[in-house]
Structure formats: C-alpha cells, structure tokens
Design a protein that fits this description.
By secondary structure, the protein is of the alpha+beta class. It is built from 4 helices and 9 strands. The strands form 2 sheets. Strands 1, 2, 3, 4, 5 and 6 form a 6-stranded mixed sheet that branches. It has a 3-stranded antiparallel sheet with strand order 7-8-9, with helices on one face.
C-alpha cells in the first residue's frame, strides 16, 4: 500500500539556517506476524527556503525567537500550514549543537515539524546526515565503489565514507 505525505527539514547550523519542504511517497511492506515497515519509494523537493544567517544573541546563544520567526515566514512563503506536515526533522548542526540553548531551540521549532524527529547533531551525526543527503550512500550502493562525502560548514568540516550503501567510516 502506498501513501503520500508532506515533510519538512529544518537545519539550524553554525552559520546558516535553511528549510526544505518535500513530498514523500511511502510504500508499506506488510508482513505476517510482525509490524509493517515503511519504505521511501520517492522523494520530491517542493520548496527550498533561502539560506539565512543563523540569528545569534549577544551572548552567542541561538536567538530562539528570531529562528522561530524565520521558520514561520518560510512556511508562509512555501504555502504550508504546519498541520499539513506529517513528518519532519529539526536538526541543530555543527557548533550550534554545542550552544547552551540548542535543545530549547529544537523544542521551540518542534510544532513546525509534524510527527517529528528532532536531533542535536554533533559532528558525527552531521557527517552521516550530510553524506546521505548528498546521495553518497546511494552512489556507493549502486556503483559498488567506496564513496566519501565531505561536509564543510560554517564552524565544522566532517567526512563520512560509505561502502555498499552503509557507513564505513565517519570523522570523529
């Protein structure tokens, strides 16, 4: 059985913040005696926000109110109401994940992300997310070759290496 849903990714990084809205086509794989699994069959990007400088307070903490305001503004620009989003992620990456208020920022944005996944992604998780987002896992699986992705951000640089579609090595 297939089902379609809207998703959002909200990335609050060391120096930049951006949102991406997409439509996911999921296929439910039913199996007798076990919980069914969902597999992503197709992903279409519907809207990418402009890239913003991550707003900071004088203390160096992330400005929760300003980030929340720019996220709300981009929802309007994209033509979405948060209630339309079924699945999303709020990811605090790079040096922003080390800020005192990183968790509070993720919580302040949670109601924008549907049935959400939220994470404070330090360098390890950030490297894997960037590699998968760039398609390095898919390239390694389809080509049979070892594939690396280097993510150079505003405050961190990370590498993740994939072999046969799986994380083989990540920068720590």
């Amino acid at each position: 059985m297939e089902r379609s849903m809207f998703s959002v990714g909200i990335d609050v990084g060391t120096s930049t913040t951006q949102l991406i809205f997409g439509r996911l086509l999921l296929e439910e794989e039913e199996s007798w005696g076990r919980a069914s699994k969902l597999r992503m069959k197709k992903r279409d990007i519907i809207y990418r926000s402009r890239i913003y400088e991550t707003p900071l307070k004088e203390s160096g903490d992330i400005d929760e109110g300003a980030v929340r305001g720019l996220v709300a503004s981009e929802y309007r620009n994209a033509g979405f109401d948060p209630k339309q989003i079924r699945m999303g992620a709020v990811i605090i990456t790079g040096e922003s994940s080390r800020k005192r208020n990183a968790r509070a920022v993720a919580q302040a944005l949670a109601d924008f992300a549907g049935d959400f996944v939220t994470a404070e992604a330090g360098p390890d998780l950030e490297a894997v997310l960037a590699g998968k987002g760039a398609g390095a896992d898919r390239i390694s699986r389809e080509s049979g070759k070892i594939t690396a992705n280097v993510d150079i951000g505003g405050g961190t640089a990370n590498i993740c290496v994939f072999r046969d579609g799986e994380v083989f090595w990540e920068d720590r």
